[in-house]
Amino acid sequence: MAKDTNDILAQDAHLIQSFADLNALKQQGARTVISRAKGAYVYDSEGNELIDGIGGLWCVNIGHGNEEMVSAISNQLQTLDFYSTFYNFTHPAAAALAEKIAQLAPGHLNAVYFGNSGSVANDSAIRMLHHYNIRKGKPNKKLVLSRHGAYHGSTHLAMAMTTPGYSEGWHAASELVHHLRSPHHWREGGEMTEVEFLDALIDDLKQSIERIGAENICAFIAEPIQGAGGVVTAPAGYHKRAWEICQANDIKYVADEVVTAFGRLGHFFASEDVFGMVPDIITTAKGLTSGYQPLSATIVSDDIHEVISGPDGMFLHGMTYSGHPAAAAAGLTNIDIMEREGIPERVQTTGKQFENNLRGLMDIELVGEVRGSHFMMGIEFVKDRATKASHPAEAQVGLKVARACQKRGLIARPLGNVLILSPTLIMDAPMIDQIESTLRDAITEVAAGL
Ligand code: PMP
């Protein structure tokens, strides 16, 4: 029997939500109940059809309600519902997916550790590097270089690697992490040109390594494009130069491709194809199963795999659901669909069109910067374009624009003064135009009321 919205909200009083003002939720209840989904759309409990402009949470890459995915997961559960990959056991789905990921991943990245979230993938990457360095007789080589504006997850260590603002109110493992400057030229570059700013960022990296000592640093972790930090692209050439410095200092480069892999930027992985470098570890999740099952992968280089599988003792790291059969089956079928339908290649055209259309919104005065790439975009609103001054937080500009979008049938994600768009990758030209015109109307309406 279908429940009505009030029944669901009464039950929802027992749910602790993620990244929410729990007090406001207690007073007002959840904003929207999403009840079902198909293709590029979701439907709320009142029956409203909404374009899923955020792809679930940057993850439903192949679109919702794909029946082939549902069958593959169901078939897997009927054959083998669960077995672990602990203590020398394995199963066909995890083995096949590990091989497939190794084939798709760049260069020497040929070994995969599965987890069930991006946070766990990043924690696992650092734990594996600690283990690697202990085995190499370098137990002090354990600190991590991250960056302001980063988002790497919500477990203890992943949150410590995330930009410091997220750890307020929590104890994070901050003694392990040093944050470098944000790579956001428009906000942080001052009077510098993009090239000068790039040099300043690279100097910051070099000086930090000198100050902390390369012998104490195991990893530099970076998203190719910062996502939850407001969709921030670094100056051209940044990742490659940072990677070269890491290589010269025996520091492993961890590319957090939780969002950027599996087609969102037009390739299975962005590190090599978009940014021209092959990291030592790629972490990914989200688009790996298009969100149909929780699954993450920590993909490591032959060198790391070789050392951690050496003769000196056990690899004491494991999650019960690592490589869960249903999640692995979802990953395999998702990749199969992406390859068969040429989804990453298609995004090279449709994603570019999406990006270009959104950049056209710069003609609205409230819009300070449109940034990102392909189907990973952010729009920052400003009070004054010349000074880049923001509206005060109480003005809730991002939230107001998101609400104005939703009223018009589009879900977008507010993040302070930024609006994030990361739709499914099955957008066609008319849908892209519709998102643009909805955004234009919503932003114009909010601007008029400020
Ligand atoms: N890394 C990045 C770049 C992310 O965007 C996220 C989540 N949005 C994570 C890690 C953490 O993933 P999860 O929420 O699955 O733990």
From TrEMBL:
Cofactor: pyridoxal 5'-phosphate
Presence of the UniProt keyword Transferase in the record: yes
CDD domains registered for this protein in UniProt: OAT_like
UniProt keywords, alphabetically: Aminotransferase, Pyridoxal phosphate, Transferase
Cited Pfam families: Aminotran_3 (PF00202)
GO MF assignments: adenosylmethionine-8-amino-7-oxononanoate transaminase activity; pyridoxal phosphate binding
Domain of life: Bacteria
Entry's EC annotation: 2.6.1.62
UniProt keyword annotation of Transferase present: yes
Record-linked InterPro entries: Aminotrans_3 (IPR005814), Aminotrans_3_PPA_site (IPR049704), PyrdxlP-dep_Trfase (IPR015424), PyrdxlP-dep_Trfase_major (IPR015421), PyrdxlP-dep_Trfase_small (IPR015422)
UniProt similarity note: Belongs to the class-III pyridoxal-phosphate-dependent aminotransferase family.
Record's protein name: Adenosylmethionine-8-amino-7-oxononanoate aminotransferase
